[in-house]
Write the structure tokens for this entry.
Amino acid sequence: MGKKDENVNMVTLTIDDQKVCVPEGTTILQAAKQAGIDIPTLCFLKEINEVGDCRMCIVEVEGRRGFATSCIQTVEEGMVVHTHTPNVLEARHVILDLIISNHAKDCLTCTRSGNCELQALAVKFNVLNIEFEGERTKHRVDDLSPSIVRDFNKCILCRRCVAACKNVQGIGAIDCINRGFESCISTVGDHSLNDVNCTFCGQCIEACPTGALHEKETINDVWIKLKDPETTVLVQTAPAVRVALGEEFGMPIGTNVQGKMVTALKRLGFDKVFDTNTGADFTIMEEANEFIERFKEHDNLPMITSCSPGWVRYIEMNYPELLPHLSTCKSPHQMFGALLKTYYAQKEGLDPEKIYVVSVMPCIAKKFERERPEMKENGLYDVDNVITTRELARMIKQANIEFEKLEDSPYDAPMGEASGAGAIFGTTGGVMEAALRTAQDVLTGEDLPKINFEQVRGGDGIKRATITIAGKPISVVAASGLSNAKKILDEIKSGKSNYQFVEIMACPGGCIMGGGQPIKSSKIRSEVDVRKLRADSLYSIDERSTIRKSHENPVVKKIYEEFLEKPGSYRAEKLLHTKYTAREKYRI
């Protein structure tokens, strides 16, 4: 029998002549990792997709016929495992050959070239020729969505996207349809993602190991506008972008590259570079005011945040009866776009029709959001183009800019000054914490020293807390990931909750893990807490900020004095607030 350690049965086995002792129930793959032995995987995603479909992780176990699939085979006492025998290596080569034989061969022009797990394995196992050439399945490319392009010709049927959509987000917009050679990953009735219950969160893209799923790229439109001397091109960057962009250039996960990013954007030719964190400060001013009014009147409580467009699309399709609980505030980049085409245009003497606003976002659902008809004023969209963190990286590379060598530059005045509260918008719990900082000062009429609300921080999918402000207890909850959103909404719908304020982010961990962020391989995702590294970087920005409350931002104060009057004013309502409507899940 195995040894015991703290009431856990331990199992001893041998992997590639190394003795390994692991808890009972551990898989061979996990045991090998503990021993520092790498076993290749393709369909495996830790705690999300552990099904053994691709068979790349096969190993030999002495005394057994055939191969064992290491990602699902649990260890046994005395087991002897070999991970790279000639038979194993040959079998992996054949598996790769078969997968590639039915895969598009346009690697040089694929958006995932250089960051494709299939490509990396083909190089690693020296797959130079395809022995099993034959008939290939051919599928139409689904590019009808404003956010996601689906190209099944590059799909390897690993089902990682299915698992992310179903197991993580609880949506199930995609699954495997048909049988045999006709099997493919698609939607109900093989319709476009644009016409089914997809929320455009993009977690499927983050899970995909190849280029079968990617964001709808719009950088060519940006290049055209940058070359137009008649157009003033303004760009704003979301808080989460600055702590992830560096990863596209080989920098450590979570590195804050704000200064280099601003320099790069200026070199690309943008006329002005602004900070969406400033827009987040306006969101807090309006949202805190809205919450205080609802709290005093006990009207449509709990109030639920509305800055995550994937989440908004989800509630519109699945819980339309709860839409009155949504805050009417636009998201930060939409608010900022509206102010750039009104207040800023007036101050600078610019024609709003000649202003082109580009938002650099960690989120592909923002592409859908900016096209919503509600996001217009005087016939002009608040924001004209949304590009992802990955798209910005491609633009920088296209311009042959050596990003790592760039000097730091500040954001442009007068719209580049932001509080630390704006920075933490990028991580789960951040919107609520920022709003509470302002709400407590307004309700008490004091400048309170309390800044941090750790109760709503952290990587847990749901964080509940009761916070006392001005002697009144306020029940709050922060949830990230749509499967967790469902739990909270079901509580509200059933009348079992007593929440007054709810924050929901579509992506697990918040915007830092958005569908437009740098894609990490399954190996990195299983070894490194990417969410925590990026989140810690945002909290560090907040902690080092001179101004940490949105209502203390001098730019915000000035614009309210000169233009908006006060939070919730007629003009603020007209420019910074919106409405939401019920949507059909399926348009087929």
Summary: The longest strand covers residues 472-480. The chain has three domains: 4-84, 97-215, 236-576.
